[in-house]
Structure formats: structure tokens, C-alpha cells
Amino acid sequence: MNICVFLSAADLEERYTAPARDFARRLGKAGHTLVWGGSDTGLMKVVADGVEEAGGRLVGVSVDFLAAKARPVADEMVITKDLAERKALLLAKSDAIVIMVGGTGTLDEATEILELKKHGRHTKPVVLLNTAGFYDGLEIQFRRMEEEGFLPRPLGELVHFAEDGAAALAYLEQDIASRG
Fold this sequence. Notes:
This protein is α/β, with parallel strands linked by helices. Helix content is 46%, strand content 18%. The chain has a seven-stranded parallel sheet with strand order 4-3-2-1-5-6-7, sandwiched between helices. β1 (2-6), α1 (14-29) and β2 form a beta-alpha-beta unit. It starts with a strand and ends with a helix.
């Protein structure tokens, strides 16, 4: 399975890097491919290293203005002209999406992927990995949107919240297997 991971390229504390490394190793050991923003810095590097060390494949999709930060060696690396093309290609190359901790770029990717799913533009499973309660506030906001009628579909059809990498990967594998 090709699993797209949206996440930060920042250097982060161990409370974020250790769970990311664990998820990456699980992904690689299970024989899955990481599809990610291609960066060789921060949390993106931690995850790419973990997947590679565990025997998984790496498919990077970077963007022209960040190409200097792209991982020098990956199974596949594509450089796009802009962020819109990058996001579209990340989605096209993936079977499932995991949203990990990140800043405004990650939040932009997450909301776009959920908006596309809401409108039926894709049916891929999406997991929001809530490491160390990072997305507690976002989950509350999404639930409010659902309760007050802002979502035309149940929240559970759009995104699954997972507390750790094992739960995230188990959900994705089950979802994909149920589709046949």
C-alpha cells in the first residue's frame, strides 16, 4: 500500500519524533511505501529514515522552491512546479493518507484532502494521527462542525482519529482490505 504522510519538516521534540519513528518502522516492516513531501529535514527525515531502515520504499514529491531540501536518494523523487501540483500528485500516488503533526502547510494539506473527500473526489482512507494530543482542538472543531450541520457527511466517513501509529496502520490496512 502507498501511504501518503503529511507532516512537518521542522526539528521537533522527542515526544513527536519517537512516535513518528515508530509509525515509520511499522510502515516499512509491513512492506508499505511512504509517499511524502520529499524533504530530508526534521520530522520528514525521521519518517523517511525509519521507513527506509525497515525495508519500505520511498516516493517523494517535493516542490521547486524546496528542491534543495529534498532527500538525495529515494526510490522515486518528483519535483513539482508549485504546491497545488505537489498536493495533487501526493494524492494521486497514494492509496491512503495519514496526517501527522505539523504546521500551516500540514493543516492546509489536511483540510484540502478532507474537502476533496467530502465532495467525492477521492475515497481513500484518511487518518489523523493525534500524537501527544496535538490535534485535540482540531478534533473538537470537526465534531462541532458535524454537530452544527457544517459537514454533509458524518465525520467518521471523512477521517479516522488514531492515538498511535499502530492504531493508524491497523485502521488503514483493515479499510483497504475491506475494499477488496
